[in-house]
Amino acid sequence: MPSLQKTREPQDRPQGPRTVIPTHRDEVAAAGSELIGGPFGRRALTGRGQFTPVRVIALVAIGMFALGMVQKLPCYNWAWFRGTTSQYTHACYSDIPHLFSGRGFADGLVPYFDRLSGDIPFLEYPVLTGLFMEVAAWLTPGSGTMDHREQTFWMVNAGMLMVCAAVLAVCVTRTHRSRPWDGLLVALAPSIALTATINWDILAVALTSAAVLLWSRGRPLGFGILLGLATAAKFYPILLLVPLLLLCWRAGKWREYGTAVLGAAGAWLVVNLPVMLMAPEGWKQFYLFSRDRNVDFGSVWLLVSQRTGTSITPDKANMYALMLMVVAVVALGFLAFSAPRRPRFAQLAFLVVAAFVLTNKVYSPQYVLWLVPLAALARPRWRDFLIWQACEVMYFLGIWMYLAFMNSGSKQGLPVDGYQFAIVLHLLGTLYLCVMVVRDILLPEKDPVRQDGSDDPSGGVLDGAEDVFVTGRAAHPARHAAPAAEGPRVEWGTPGDPEPVTERDSRG
């Protein structure tokens, strides 16, 4: 039976998949869109003129960030300065104003060079984050009451971090060319609004997202440079080189991987080497603090310690976490080489960072920021994303109520059992999203990103590349299965068709 599909002339055929509209494919997105007028239609202005996805999502991200600043208002007005549990009961705690005086910025001390008077002799943050903090201190007036100066320091940092949040949302929006609206997952993530101004993590998250964007554009050197800068602001971004190694190994892209590694090492050294040479004691404080830190809030080790009544020393926690990370990386390698189709870069990147979060000896509330952009790229489904976010919001509230309980003499807040339940929610929510990503890898036809015929939009040189090293199921595919490196061939219908039609759909 002849095909009923109307095809265009070759010169009119588009060069890639059409833009995926979430309200056309995601039931949760379609239902949620009723609040703003319903699913995307033919007469929608978005994408034309001033209403491009990048601009809309950047504005939404800034708006959500501003709401997060409003949420901190009780603390900004008084709770930070009274030394009471109010900053916990209002869930508006932030490290930023407390470290203004606690780490010497109020006194004009130079990070890493000038010794502090407390238990921590030097600033315990990586060099690029320390520079970020110092720039904010330069912009903070040196006169006025300490309360006012701390307010100003927090506000200056919030303004700088808002720029990072906008950059983060834009980078995620542009990474998958055919799925720009996935950036709304980041822009509307409640965890970003709640945790972005607790600490300075979003600086590293924005740099990491910019690095992933450059990799998706086939620029390994730019990726490496930005990843090196991100690692100079926080440790976790260096983990992305692990899944990249596995994927480049499977695809034989050794030159590109080497370029990325050299770029990352060079950028990290440029930032760190001057401080390393001129203030070695101050420079290594971050690494000593990370090594010697006790089992702390939010970690599975704290849960085990409290439930069993046994103390887990920092050395043991470090050893256990390292062993579990090695197991996770080995499992990730098996998954990368044996999956029927090469996993997408964002999928493995999310899994390796999630493994680090789950096994680390501390889980501060703002660490969720590390996973938000990777989750949006790895599993862009609103239902799964919101389930995970709900668990993280519950943990966010749980830790502050637990601290209120501990600091108020057990008069108010969440007792130990309640806080342990919040930790379990965080662990289960993250594991749930990991399971969904692994399912997409093992069953690539379930992957929402690949359903339009795409291979790996965030993969750069890996996108559409042939495999040179596979094992297990990938080395012995079923005879009826499609080749691992190929997706369904997309044929384009008439201009009014809402979605592309695959070769299978066009047959009689």
UniProtKB/TrEMBL annotation:
Its main location: membrane. This is Membrane protein. Keywords: Cell membrane, Membrane, Transferase, Transmembrane, Transmembrane helix. It comes from Streptomyces gardneri. GO terms for cellular component: plasma membrane. One of its GO terms (molecular function) is hexosyltransferase activity. Belongs to the glycosyltransferase 87 family. It is a multi-pass membrane protein. The chain crosses the membrane at residues 52-70, 153-172, 184-215, 221-247, 259-279, 319-338, 345-365, 385-406, 418-438. Residues 1-20, 476-508 are annotated as: Disordered. It is found in: Cell membrane. Residues 1-12 have a biased composition (Basic and acidic residues).
